[in-house]
Amino acid sequence: MKKLLSLLGLKYESSSQYAKEIILEKDYKFMYENFLVSSQRKLYLLLEKNEQSIEAITFNFHVYKYGYPNDEVDLPSKISGVVNYGLSEVYNSNWINELKINNRSHHHHSDKMFSNRNHYIVRFKDVTLEIITGSKFSIVQIPINEFQQIINDELENISNVG
Predict the structure, then answer these.
(1) Which of 18, 62, 27 is CA-nearest to residue 139?
(2) pLDDT, tens digit, 9 for 90 and up, residues 37-71
(3) How far apart are CA 89 and CA 53, in angstroms?
C-alpha cells in the first residue's frame, strides 16, 4: 500500500488509532439524556442542572458528529478502547488524519496545524458525539442566567434586524 501511494504521488499516513477512557472527577450520567448547544466554534454538552447553575463540558471544536450510532452497534471506525456511557480520547485518530489530508489542498496548509488536534468520543445509549478540537475540553459550572445570556447573544447574531 505504501509503495502504491508513493507511485501515485501520495503520502502514506499510517495510524493505529485507539482510545482511552477519561475519568472525570464527578460521575455524570452519560447513559440516556444529553443536551448539546453549539455555536460556530463552541460546543456545550450539558451534564447536570441544579437550582443555580448548569454543569457542562465545553469544547472549542473544529468539527463534530452527533447521532448514529447508538450503543447497540460499533462505531464505523471500530476504535478499540472507546467506552459506552462515558468520555474517551482517541489517539492516532484516523479522522484527524483524514481532515489533515483533505486540508492539503489549501494553499496555506501545514501538517503541523493538525499536530495539536484532539479527538473525543462520548457514547450515550441512543447517540454518539465525536469532536475534533484544537484544545482540551473544560468542565464548567455556568450560572443559569449567564447560560441564558449565551443563548440570547447567539440569537442576536442570527437576528434579521438591521
Answers:
(1) 27
(2) 999 889 999 999 999 999 999 999 999 999 999 88
(3) 27
Residue 93, judged by CB atoms within 10 A of its CB (0-12, 13-18, 19+), counts as: buried
* Overall number of domains in the chain: 1
Beta-bridge mates of residue 123: 86, 128
The C-alpha cell at 81 is 478502547
How high is the pLDDT of residue 1?
46
Question: What is the DSSP pairing of strand 42-49 with strand 53-67?
Answer: antiparallel
In a domain, 8, yes or no: no
Q: Which residues contact 126 (CB under 8 A, 6 or more apart)?
A: 32, 70, 71
The Cα–Cα gap between 79 and 90 comes to: 8
pLDDT at position 53: 96
Containing domain of residue 96, as a range?
17-157
Specify the pLDDT at position 159. 81
Q: How far is CA 114 from CA 58, 95, 137, in A?
A: 20, 11, 17
* CA dist 41 → 112, 124, 135 (Å): 20, 23, 12
